Amino acid sequence: xxxxxxxxxxxxxxxxxxxxxxxGQDLIVATLRRAVAGGRLGHAYLLSGQRGVGKTSVARILxxxxxxxxxxxxxxxxxxESCQRILQGLSLDVVEIDGASNRGVDQIRRxxxxxxxxxxxxxxxxxxxxxxxMLTGEAFNALLKTLEEPPPHVLFIFATTExxxxxxxxxxxxxxxxFQPIAEDAIAxxxxxxxxxxxxxxxxxxxxLIARRSRGALRDALVVLDQLGHAGEVTEEAVVDxxxxxxxxxxxxxxxxxxxxxxxxxLAIVADLSTRGRDLAxxxxxxxxxxxxxxxxxxSALIPVAQRLIELxxxxxxxxxxxxxxxxxxxxxxxxLRTGAGGPRSPGPAREAELPPPSTGxxxxxxxxxxxxxxxxxxxxxxxxxxxxxxxAVAAFLSPAEVMWADGLLTVRLPPDCGYHYESLLEPAxxxxxxxxxxxxxxxxxxxxxxxxxxxxxxxxxxxxxxLAEALEGRILGEGDDGSK
Length: 485
Fold this sequence. Notes:
Rossmann fold
């Protein structure tokens, strides 16, 4: 006996029972209906497509239509004895096999033995093999022998989400149908109809959002509606909370920041999402999808942004830190930061109390704070842009810095929360690269000095001596060491 419908989930309760009820696969169902009505059924069908688009439902409808005692223009009547037995799962002539669980050659050999027997009261003995691509190579070889010379009373219906894994020799012996993702507007209409039937208050924007996030899978959309329908009115906010989606205004703000090259705003959005534990990959998917909608509406400036977002979504799966990878990509896309309250900051003049004047080496300051001048903004911006085009990571290290220009000395000061940036810039190769680049934009330039506003542990006398010796390419002599070694 079947379960009472009151205890079934929505996607099972509203599973299509006739070809005419299948959503979004009009050409496929029309072809199958004509084949049934004309008595021209093949011996094997391969139904492929993403999950949740109706493959198994169509396979079951076809199994009933092929055996229906009173078919109606290729449709199963669902009232005759044969249809009722199949609907209730009592028919011995319709066998459903999970290819993932019964993938070995022994199971297929048993199937080959069974197909020799005539149906027990039906016209066809139907074998529905779901996820057929999971069968082993040996199992496919065993199945192939039956497909080459099938008994006239046997009908095979294979379903798969990965048809490229099915051997070509098997595909060539099947009538293949590729199911398409169901259109969003079609899914939304079904959701509204089901909600009205079930007495669920469903806001139209919520239906549209569920349809968009289901990505062509009607079953997934019905599962979401089922989850939310028990908690009262289904609103757009409820869908966002359940699926962890970012609000549309936030996505638009992020896209506007990227188009306007406002790295500060884009980074602030990413920081907020990370703090709240949101999935950055999902956010990028939403951003790319929204960019597509706005491009179609005429915003051509978003085309390069959308292309980069799509690339980034693929890169995040390999990134050791999704947030860091995304932040560096934002800086690369937008250019150096402009301001930085609470986050990375763009270069600007240092405050006198924070940046002491550099020393000449004899204890006397090289220039007083009043004499020191910030570098020409256009020169520093041009330098950062040049580094950004060549070495994105180095540009990211320099972006939060404040800079000062005095007597040929360019002082680059990192804020307290940028200790890692500071240490990275002190790497000999990185430091040499920055100094070489700075000489192209500042003249006369004697040196580049890196300063960190964080707490530096004061080195011991021995450590200071070691640093000095390394800088002078010398070595420290011990007691009694005359330096002859």
